[in-house]
Amino acid sequence: MFKAYVALPHQRPAPAVIVIQEIFGINPEMREKCNELARQGFIAVCPDLFWRMEPGVQLTDKTEEEWKRAFQFFQDFDINKGIEDLRATAHVFKGHADCTGNVGCVGYCLGGKLAYLMAARSSIDCSVSYYGVGLGDLLGEAPLIKKPLMLHVAEKDEYVRDAEQKKIKDALKKYQNIKIHSYPGVNHAFARGGGVNYDLEAAIKANDRTFVFLKSNLKLAMAA
C-alpha cells in the first residue's frame, strides 16, 4: 500500500487530477503543484510511485548527490508497476465521495512519460505531459489514445533532442485529440518552480494552457 499527498479545493465535489512526480519524489515542488491545482478547483493527488524502492523520497535538483540518487531511482523504476499504481489511484478517486467522477492526470519528466502512457493504457479522462522523456520509443501506443492529451515540449530539452522531438511531432500530428505545445529557447523542467532551468514566462504559459485544458475536459464548471 502506498501513500499520496492530497490537496482539496474549497468547493466539492470536484474533478480529480493525479499529479505524477518527477524523479525527485513527492518533494515540496510536487506538493505546491497539487496546492495550485486545488486553488484552481480540483482535487489534486500525488501518489508515491517510488514506494517499492523507498517510501517518502524527497529530493531536489540542487546537489550532485541528490541528482545521483534521483537518476538511480529513475533507472530502477518499474514503469509497468507505476502505471498499475496510477490506475489504482484513478480508480479510488473516480469513486470517491468528494469527486465528481471525472479524473485526469498531469505529469512532469518521468511523470510526463507516465502521463502519456496513462492516456494510452487507461480510461482516464484527459492527460497532460510536461517534457516527457522517452516518448520517441512509445509512439506505437499512440493509436490507443482515445481521450484528450496535451504535450508541453521544451525545444532545448537536453534529454529529448531535436531528432526525437521531430519524430514525436511528426507521429502525433495526425491525431486530433493530441495537442502539442512547443516552447522555444527553454530546457527540460522549465516549469519546475525554483529549479535550475525554471523559465517564468514559459511556465506561466504552459500552466495556463494546462488549467484551461483540465477545466474543459474534466467539466469543472459543471461540478460547481
Describe, in short, the structure shown.
By secondary structure, the chain is an alpha/beta fold.
Structure overview:
- The chain has helices spanning 28-39, 64-76, 79-94, 110-121, 162-172, 200-217, 220-223, and strands at 4-7, 14-20, 43-47, 99-108, 126-130, 149-154, 178-183.
- With 224 residues, the chain is an alpha/beta fold.
- It has a seven-stranded mixed beta sheet with strand order 1-3-2-4-5-6-7, sandwiched between helices.
- α4 (110-121) links the parallel β4 and β5 (126-130).
- α3 (79-94) packs across α4.
- The radius of gyration is 16 Å and the shape is globular.
Low-confidence stretches: none
Shape: globular
Q: What's the CATH H-level homologous superfamily?
A: Alpha/Beta hydrolase fold, catalytic domain
Radius of gyration: 16 Å
Largest sheet: 7 strands, mixed
Helix content: 25-40%
Which architecture per CATH?
A: 3-Layer(aba) Sandwich
Element order: H for helix, E for strand: EEHEHHEHEEHEHH
Average pLDDT number: 96
State the CATH topology: Rossmann fold
Order of strands across the biggest sheet?
1-3-2-4-5-6-7
Count of the separate structural domains: 1
Helix segment tally: 7
- The level 1 CATH classification is Alpha Beta
What share of the residues does DSSP label as strand, in percent? Answer: 15-25%
Structural class: alpha/beta
The count of DSSP E runs of length 2 or more, i.e. the number of strands, is 7
Terminal-residue CA separation: 32 Å
